[in-house]
Structures are given as structure tokens and as C-alpha cells.
Structure prediction request, 194 residues.
Amino acid sequence: MNLANILTATRIVLSPFFMFFFFLPSWAGDKFTALAAIVCLFLFAVIELSDMFDGMAARSLGMVSDFGKIFDPFADVFSRLTYFMCFVGIGLMPVWIFAIILYREVTILFCRTMMMKRGIAMGARMGGKIKACAYCGAGISGMLYVTFDWLNIFSGIIGHMRIISLVFFVISAFAALLSLYDYIIFIRKTVKNK
Prediction:
């Protein structure tokens, strides 16, 4: 485990804590709402920043590896599905959008596994990077809505924040489908040329 992979692992470790605190007010009462909002916002920030810094560390310190190429996207999926599932749980993200994202991610994990059997470590592609940016934007907009709502601040724009979140969620679903198509084309070309 090098520095880059440790940063990647933080996303996997912190995701269950994010879910725990996200649903803490539902389980233990409204008195925990403010605490949950602050802790979830902090955990979300750490998770997203670790995604940015693990890649930078891997490249700048020469730690890029086949393991990292698989571990990083797995940690991304693990963390982002966690907070998207939380958004679904409170009725913020529509179930059909979550289903598109979930099916895309499971399909890509299957494809990565099949390519590994052929000795090919399928790293991130441009479509996947665009999709990751869309997911990040959806996560940020969703977390801002939840934070404003739970802390009862900026109540005059909370309705607009919900609409903005929905727009980001739809963009994420569209980006998920486009990146799936990008990966399928890549896999077909790679298999054909082997």
C-alpha cells in the first residue's frame, strides 16, 4: 500500500461512516440533524478530495500501478453509490436515475474483471472522467441541498437547490450512459485487435 492507494482506501473506509451519520437523525431523532449535516459534509469533502489527490500522488511520485488502476475506480464507485443511495433514501434522487448509475457501474466492474482475465488493466477513459465530474457535481449539489435543509439555512433558495440537484442527477445519468458506450467501444476494439 503506497500513499496513492492509502488515499484511495480512505474512500472505502469513510463511506459507511457517511451513511451512518446521514441516517442518524432518522434512527436517533431530530436532535442529531445538525451534527449529521456537519459530519456528512466533512466526510463528503474528504472523500472527494481523496479522489483528486490519489491520482496526483500516483502520477507525481511514480506510483501508477495496475492495482491502482482497478482500485481507484472501485473506491470511486463504492463512495459515490453510497451517497447517491443516501439521496435516494430521503427522496432527493429519483430511483430511476440511481438505477441507471448502479447498472452502469456494475456493468463496468464486470467488464474490468473480464479484461483483467485477458491481462488488460482497463484504466479510466475520457468518458469515465467526464462521468466522474458529473457524479462529483451531483454529489456537491445534493450535499448542499441536504446541508441547507438540515441546518435550516438559506431557506429562500432551498426549492431552487432541489431543482439544481435534480438537473445534476439527470446529467449524471446521461454521462453514465455515454461513458458506458465509450467503454464498450474501447473493449470491442481491444478484443478485436488481440
Summary: The helical segments are 3-28, 33-60, 66-89, 95-117, 126-151, 158-193. Residues 158-193 form the longest helix (36 residues). The mean pLDDT is 89. The chain has six helices and no strands.
